[in-house]
Design a protein that fits this description.
9 helices, 355 residues, 25% strand, 7-stranded mixed beta sheet, alpha/beta, single chain
């Protein structure tokens, strides 16, 4: 090839993780961008693009990495040796990765038989063994599965099965790309009342909203109090709206007020001076949006942001997300993000910034 010849376009290989059951939505979104599908399993998708392009992103993509290779061996030590060999073959020596993230794909839908995503006990043991072999030469971190800092290069190892590993890398940027497997590591101060605690924690961090001690937050659909527990931990004044009873640990907290009613039945004055609104109700999303629209369009509304959980019911209902987004846009928000959080079941979270 001479200097006047056009450069050769190199393909891009990507490996993506998502919730078990959301693969169809991931595949549809990346196919529209020119990606061709390859190997996939529930919770895991690989694809190829004929050009050098950025990694795909989207509502249902939890993690994305440039694929390096695939290893399968029932012998654990042989598997680790194969990983060292793969890196030696594919990666420029002398430039170790900053972090090592190793996690399993979601082998079950979230909530089924109590399943929760993230680094399980098997993955912890494998991660320690891999780190022992790679530490120094290939990774700089002192332990695997640390939270990455923006700009750090992360070596990704996905256990599609315990003896079936896919290897890749990415550069940490937004919060979900900094967490191992896209799942927020968090240690609650106290035993959470419900898993809504983890959903609230993830949504607050992911959104980038500046929740500050003393701010007033309201949660629609607050019982029994999991999300309120996280808000109280952050030092907020919290109003919970729900006809059902709250857990005593929340109900008796000095910074908590319980309104035993449906949000749509309350006078708008109850939302004066509220800065943040969270909604996670077991009602149809259209009804939730109607209730919230009556709040945000009221002349006395002073909300800065909202975190709205919308139930899909099943993944085929994902096409309705665009309709919900259109309705939210009529409220003239500054910014709207939508994502299936790692802790979401068959649902998505809208982060709506109003001012």
């Amino acid at each position: 090839m001479t200097s006047t010849d056009p450069p050769t376009s190199q393909p891009t290989f990507a490996m993506l993780c998502c919730a078990n059951g959301a693969e169809k939505q991931v595949k549809q979104s990346i196919a529209a961008e020119g990606w061709r599908l390859a190997f996939s399993r529930p919770g895991f998708v690989t694809a190829k693009h004929d050009s050098q392009v950025e990694l795909p992103g989207g509502t249902f993509i939890r993690t994305a990495a440039y694929s390096i290779g695939h290893l399968k061996n029932a012998d654990g030590e042989a598997q680790v040796a194969g990983l060292v060999g793969l890196l030696t073959e594919k990666i420029v020596p002398g430039r170790p990765f900053d972090q090592l993230h190793l996690w399993p794909r979601d082998r079950l839908p979230i909530g089924k038989f109590g399943f929760e995503p993230g680094v399980d006990e098997v993955a912890k043991l494998v991660a320690q063994r891999v780190h022992q072999s790679l530490g120094g030469n290939w990774v700089r971190c002192d332990q695997p599965n640390r939270i990455a800092q923006p700009g750090e290069r992360v070596l990704d190892v996905v256990l599609v099965d315990p003896d079936d590993w896919f290897i890749g890398w990415h550069t940490a940027a937004q919060w979900h790309s900094r967490w191992p497997g896209g799942v927020q590591p968090i240690e609650p101060q106290y035993e959470p009342i419900s898993r809504a605690y983890f959903k609230a924690a993830e949504s607050i961090t992911w959104s980038g909203f500046d929740f500050a001690p003393g701010d007033v937050a309201v949660e629609i659909g607050s019982a029994p109090g999991g999300a309120c527990g996280r808000l109280l931990e952050l030092g907020l004044q919290v109003i919970g709206i729900d006809p059902a009873e709250m857990d005593d640990r929340i109900a008796n907290h000095p910074r908590f007020k319980h309104l035993r009613a449906r949000a749509g039945d309350l006078p708008r004055r109850e939302f004066r001076n509220v800065k943040w609104l969270l909604a996670d109700s077991n009602v149809k999303p259209e009804k939730t949006l109607t209730t919230i629209e009556n709040i945000v369009t009221h002349r006395e509304c002073s909300l800065s942001g909202m975190l709205l959980t919308m139930k899909l019911g099943d993944y085929d209902a994902a096409g309705r997300i665009s309709n919900w987004l259109q309705q939210i846009q009529t409220w003239n928000p500054i910014d709207v993000q939508v994502r299936q959080l790692a802790r979401n079941r068959c649902e998505v979270c809208f982060a709506v910034r109003l001012r």
